[in-house]
């Protein structure tokens, strides 16, 4: 015998998130309208108070959203928000001469080069609650598994995606850059093509 | 060739880095599953210069789970009173035909019972069991053996001179 398991009550809402107002560049006001796609609310109003343990959305290997709730266990944070390191920062080289630094171990004609990282403009990026694609999340693809999936992070190779579902395709935004300048391109387009398969590829051919 | 693409998202803001791809049954074009190539085209590459195999991901698009499970579509059809019962009629018809044949055979034998004489068959069978020595009840040990009198043992082999 075992006790009857009572299912937990689930609460659903059909409430549409209301637009909210924010201030962007130099005091310019903007009305932000939240949108819900596949259960994920984009452009939601930020919480008034934060403690660093707010839920965030991860993507599984198919590209389906999974909510992660950070927890502090011991001295470590489990399911912590992703750290993007310097992937989305702009790097610039600053040259400093001896006259500017007056370092005791520099020659008078020597120059010191320093890499300076500038944070990206997160005015619109911050409205996306889903984990962003970075090169460390690329996977290997191809028959031998030796080709990088750049610039895609999801969906992974040869996964079965079902009809009537929504999957998030994610790519590294700084992958495509203009050849003459280091600026990131502004627009991309996604295309889907059928791939003709032989019976052997499907694994149905007799040996 | 971009004309071969069955779906194009249109120009998206690259800074978003994400696109919700909603798969519909139209994408499968009548098939149950298809292998699909997902390619990305930056705006600095023209359509005629675009090579889908440069930056791509392959995945398989399927209609539903591969297990034999009632799908939402089937449930909707059942709710509407529409069901495909062809297999059900086939499964029922086979035992029905067998039962009808057995009943017909029974009546055929019943009606012809007065015209049937199988005593020869019966006598032959009984005589087969009586080919034992003595009374049948005394030879329980050998009841399954078609025993014969000693005089009937085979005598077809010729004896050699040495044996004589």
Summarize the helices and strands and which ones pair or pack.
The complex is a heterodimer of chains A (207) and B (164).
Chain A lengths: L19 E5 L3 E5 L2 E3 L2 E3 L13 E4 L5 E4 L2 E3 L2 E3 L11 E8 H4 L9 E8 L21 E2 L5 E2 L3 E3 L5 E3 L3 E6 L15 E9 L3 H4 L5
Antiparallel strand pairs in A: 1-2, 3-4, 5-6, 7-8, 9-10, 11-12, 13-15
Chain B lengths: L6 E7 L4 E5 L10 E10 L13 E7 L9 H8 L6 H26 L7 H11 L35
Write out the strand line-up for the largest beta sheet of chain A, numbering strands in chain order: 1-2
Task: Please report the total strand number of chain A as a whole number.
Answer: 16
The neighbouring-strand order within the major sheet of chain B is 3-4
What summary fits the major beta sheet of chain A?
2 strands, antiparallel
Spans of chain B of 5+ residues with little confidence (pLDDT < 50)? Answer: none
C-alpha geometry of chain B: elongated
Helix content of chain A: under 10%
Tertiary shape of chain A: extended
Which whole number gives the mean pLDDT of chain A?
A: 86
The ordered string of helix (H) and strand (E) elements of chain A is: EEEEEEEEEHEEEEEEEH
* Number of discrete helical segments of chain A: 2
Q: Largest interface here, residues on each chain?
A: A-B, 50 and 50 residues
Distance between the termini of chain A: 52 Å
Determine the strand fraction of chain A and express it as a percent band: 25-35%
- Taking the alpha carbons of the first and last residues of chain B, their distance comes to 104 Å
The profile of the biggest β sheet of chain B is: 2 strands, antiparallel
| Overall pLDDT of chain B | 79
Rg of chain A is: 24 Å
């Amino acid at each position: 015998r075992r006790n009857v398991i009572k299912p937990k009550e689930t609460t659903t809402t059909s409430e549409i998130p209301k637009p909210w107002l924010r201030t962007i560049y130099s005091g310019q006001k903007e009305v932000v309208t939240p949108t819900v796609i596949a259960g994920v609310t984009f452009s939601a109003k930020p919480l008034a108070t934060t403690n660093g343990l707010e839920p965030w959305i991860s993507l599984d290997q198919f590209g389906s959203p999974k909510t992660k709730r950070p927890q502090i266990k011991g001295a470590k944070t489990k399911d912590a928000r992703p750290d993007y390191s310097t992937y989305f920062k702009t790097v610039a080289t600053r040259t400093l001469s001896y006259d500017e630094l007056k370092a005791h171990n520099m020659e008078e004609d020597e120059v010191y080069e320093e890499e300076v990282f500038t944070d990206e403009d997160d005015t619109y990026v911050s409205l996306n609650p889903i984990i962003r694609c970075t090169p460390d999340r690329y996977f290997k693809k191809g028959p031998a598994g030796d080709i990088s999936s750049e610039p895609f992070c999801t969906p992974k190779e040869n996964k079965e995606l079902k009809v009537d579902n929504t999957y998030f395709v994610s790519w590294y935004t700084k992958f495509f850059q203009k050849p003459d300048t280091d600026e990131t391109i502004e627009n991309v387009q996604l295309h889907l093509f059928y791939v003709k398969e032989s019976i052997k590829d499907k694994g149905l051919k007799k040996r | 060739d971009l004309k071969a693409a069955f779906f194009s998202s249109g120009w998206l803001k690259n800074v978003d880095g994400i696109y919700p791809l909603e798969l519909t049954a139209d994408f499968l074009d009548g098939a149950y599953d298809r292998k699909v190539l997902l390619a990305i085209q930056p705006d600095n590459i023209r359509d005629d210069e675009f090579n889908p195999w440069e930056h791509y991901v392959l995945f398989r698009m399927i209609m539903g789970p591969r297990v034999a499970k009632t799908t939402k579509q089937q449930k909707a059809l059942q709710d509407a009173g529409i069901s495909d019962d062809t297999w059900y009629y086939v499964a029922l018809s086979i035992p029905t035909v067998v039962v009808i044949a057995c009943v017909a055979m029974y009546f055929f034998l019943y009606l012809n019972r007065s015209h049937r004489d199988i005593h020869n068959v019966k006598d032959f069978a009984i005589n087969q069991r009586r080919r034992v020595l003595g009374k049948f009840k005394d030879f329980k040990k050998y009841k399954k053996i078609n025993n014969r009198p000693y005089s009937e043992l085979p005598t077809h082999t010729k004896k050699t001179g040495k044996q004589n």
